[in-house]
Design goal:
The protein is of the alpha/beta class and 474 residues long. It has 2 domains: 291 residues, Alpha-Beta Barrel (TIM Barrel); 138 residues, 2-Layer Sandwich (Nucleotidyltransferase, domain 5), CATH 3.30.420.130. The chain has 14 helices and 16 strands. Strands 10-9-8-5-4-3-1-11 form an 8-stranded mixed sheet. Strands 14-13-12-15-16 form a 5-stranded mixed sheet. A 3-stranded antiparallel sheet has the order 2-6-7, covered by helices on one side. β8, α7 and β9 form a beta-alpha-beta unit. α2 runs parallel beside α3 and α4 packs parallel to α6. The chain is globular, with a radius of gyration of 22 Å. The protein starts with 25 loop residues before the first helix and ends with a helix. It binds FE(8)-S(7) cluster (CLF) and iron/sulfur cluster. The site of FE(8)-S(7) cluster (CLF) has 18 residues, from β1, β3, β4 and β5.
């Protein structure tokens, strides 16, 4: 087995958006229980979709190239099909009829939803009328937010994300070259000061109106990594429900300032270490997939190409039957999942070891270990210790299996992406990749195929610590 991680880090099973029904006030739980971004548990079951209706933006971030979508909540380097509010409405009706997991409609650009407000508002109004049970969600850089908060509240938008990368304008000068505010372009410290003040004002206004706020922060090594502790402290104090610290992605081919000047992003382990430093009692989102401004599906899957406007008919009608049937199934499955998770925690608490290890899981969703190793495009990573099973994040990989064969180079990439991981749990794995993983110090097993993720991890952890019999008979 690989060397165990230190047992420091999140000391509470209530940490982060993994909080469940018994840990949150009922009115908050009601708002987050079906939201895949605001509840780690919900992301196993529920899907979001974005509609790219808001292309205009009022600031410049050094990690953004305007040829692409807003990088504040999207993977950089991706271009969406821009829609009018009417097209967006048709698209949402088509997706809501076909994708049973759909629970949230978000507007995350491709520019800024609050700055390009007319289109954002018109889209939300049209959709709320046609599909009243869909949750509305938006993401913004915060500069125009204070001007929109009252309308946001009136429209029953319960979830707003504000991207806040600094709370010290001096740090902001290294991230934002300019902003456009009150018909004027501002640069340098003045620009960063205005942006900071508006972001703080927006946060407070949302909190006063009991709207749940998630803060996204892009972690930029050497610029705001140490500062992130202060960002976390301030946004928590201002009432943010969740803090999502995302890694900077700065490929040179995306043509961003950071990409072209060699500014690197953090490694997965650097991100984890930072998250561990801020996670004491703080609500951290760790399951973000930095999705596209036109993403459709469960987090981590993207069905956007199935629902481009070319696939949406002019006279689409909304059929709620698939979503209704799915919700009934989920209600039952989820109860079982929660029970199993508690049982897994009890089992781990009984193991006489203080080692904390990282476990990677191949899953297609539903909270189970149910994907072949070679089919995975990402692995979900958990930390297992006597304190329980904590979700840590995900690692994106290129799919190893190419229909009966696998590329060595792809496998090398997978192994590199699994840095720090002790074991991979999946529903099936061949001898060849298993041996290569083993040579790299990573165990892989399909012995826990189709078990609940936490139950499989607890059983593996117990076995690895010589307690399997004790755990299985518990
Ligand atoms: Fe979209 Fe964002 Fe709403 Fe979610 S995404 S507007 S809160 S519905 Fe989610 Fe995607 Fe991460 Fe955003 S995984 S990038 S956090
Ligand atoms: Fe780009 Fe979004 Fe920043 Fe605007 S707010 S510059 S669209 S990343």
């Amino acid at each position: 087995m690989r060397k165990a991680l230190s047992s420091s880090g999140c000391a509470s099973s209530k940490c982060g958006s993994s909080s469940g029904s018994d840990e949150l006030p009922p009115e908050i739980w009601e708002k987050v229980k079906d939201h895949p971004c605001y509840s780690e548990e919900a992301h196993h079951y529920f899907a979001r979709m974005h509609v790219a209706v808001a292309p205009a933006c009022n600031i410049q971030c050094n990690y953004c190239n305007r040829k692409y979508d807003c990088s504040n909540e999207s993977r950089p380097g991706v271009v969406s099909e821009k829609l009018t509010p009417e097209q967006a409405m048709r698209k949402v009706m088509a997706v809501a009829s076909e994708v049973p997991q759909l629970s949230v409609l978000g507007i995350a650009g491709p520019g800024d939803a609050c700055y390009d407000w007319k289109k954002t508002k018109a889209t939300f109004e049209l959709i709320a009328e046609k599909i009243p049970d869909i949750k509305l969600c938006l993401s913004t850089n915060g500069l125009a937010l204070p001007d929109r908060v009252d309308e946001i509240a009136q429209m029953n938008i319960d979830h707003v994300t504000v991207t806040i990368n600094m709370v010290d304008p001096e740090v902001g000068t290294h991230i934002y070259p300019w902003i456009f505010y009150r018909n004027k372009r501002w640069t340098g410290l003045d620009a960063a000061k205005i942006l900071h003040e508006r972001q703080m004002q927006g946060l407070e206004m949302l909190k006063e109106r009991r709207i749940l706020v998630k803060v996204n922060s892009v972690l930029i090594p050497g610029i705001n990594d140490e500062h992130m502790l202060e960002v976390n402290r301030v946004v928590k104090q201002k009432g943010a429900f969740l803090h999502n610290i995302m890694p900077l992605i700065s490929e040179p081919e995306h043509g961003t300032y950071f990409g072209l000047t060699g500014q690197r992003g953090p490694t997965p382990m650097e991100l984890k270490k930072l998250q561990d430093r801020v996670s004491d009692g703080t609500k951290l989102m760790k399951h973000c997939r930095q999705c596209r401004a036109d993403a459709v599906g469960l987090l981590g899957e993207d069905r956007g190409q199935e629902f481009t406007m070319a696939h949406v008919s002019d006279d689409v009608a909304y059929d709620p039957s698939k979503r209704e049937a799915y919700r009934e199934i989920v209600a039952k499955e989820r109860g079982e999942h929660v029970e199993n998770r508690k049982k897994a925690s009890d089992q781990l608490a009984a193991v006489a070891s203080d080692a904390a290890v990282l476990v990677a899981v191949a899953t297609k969703g539903g909270g189970r270990i149910n994907q072949h190793f070679g089919h995975a495009k990402e692995f979900q990573v958990y930390e297992a210790s006597a304190r329980g099973v904590q979700f840590v994040g995900h690692r994106k990989v290129d799919q190893y299996c190419q229909g009966g064969w696998g590329e060595d180079a792809t496998l090398d990439g997978v192994i590199a992406a699994l840095e720090g991981v002790s074991v991979v749990l999946c529903s099936k794995i061949g001898d060849c990749p298993k041996d290569s993983l083993s040579a790299a110090g990573i165990q892989a097993t399909d012995s826990y195929a189709h078990e609940w993720i936490e139950a499989g991890i607890a059983a593996w952890y117990g076995a690895a610590h010589g307690k399997e019999q004790a755990l299985r008979s518990a």
